[in-house]
Amino acid sequence: MVAYLLTTAAQAWAMAPRAGGAEGQQSGGGMELFIIMGGFILIFYFLLIRPQKKQQRERQSMLDNIKKGDRIQTNGGLLGMVTGVDAKELTLRIAPEVRVKIARSAVAGIVKSSDAQPAADKPKSE
């Protein structure tokens, strides 16, 4: 993307009309174009690229720190407790006597313990 922007800027500068006609004097428009393009690149970096990299680092940290006993939610919507941890897989208990293996990358997030209580454990208000 940066190469495209720089190429476009260079082409625009080369095609810009020259002031002074045959005398060969150049206008200052070419340098202004580079400054504007540089500003756009900085805006893209700070508004798009940098926050996305931060979010990727946070997600990778969350995936690396999953441990036995954590309650998680998968991308498919399953909720359960981690009972086994491997390098690329997790064993998830989704019901008594029901365990499934999932890819570590399929984890959507760690669920807070108050949000993950099964309906049977919550007090009934009647």
Please tell me about this protein's structure.
Helix content is 40%, strand content 22%. It is of the alpha+beta class. The chain has two domains: 2-16 and 29-64, no CATH class; 71-110, no CATH class. It has a five-stranded antiparallel β-sheet, with helices on one face. Strand 1 (71-74) and strand 2 (79-85) form a beta hairpin. The longest helix is centred in the middle third of the chain and has 36 residues, at 29-64. It is rod-shaped, with a radius of gyration of 28 Å.
Q: Any descriptors?
A:
about 130 residues, alpha+beta, five-stranded antiparallel beta sheet, 2 helices, about 20% strand
What does this entry show, briefly?
With 126 residues, this protein is of the alpha+beta class. 40% of the residues lie in helices and 22% in strands. It has two domains: 2-16 and 29-64, no CATH class; 71-110, no CATH class.
Seen as an oligomer or otherwise, the chain set is single chain
Encode the helix/strand succession as letters.
Answer: HHEEEEE
Major sheet summary line: 5 strands, antiparallel
Adjacency order of strands in the biggest sheet: 4-3-2-1-5
Structure summary, number of beta strands: 5
Structural class per helix/strand content? alpha+beta
Helix content: 25-40%
> How much β-strand is present in the residues?
15-25%
- Parts with pLDDT < 50 across at least 5 consecutive residues: none
Mean pLDDT metric:
82
Q: End-to-end span in angstroms?
A: 61 Å
| Helix count from the secondary structure assignment | 2
Taken from the alpha-carbon principal axes, the silhouette is: rod-shaped
Radius of gyration over all CA atoms, rounded: 28 Å
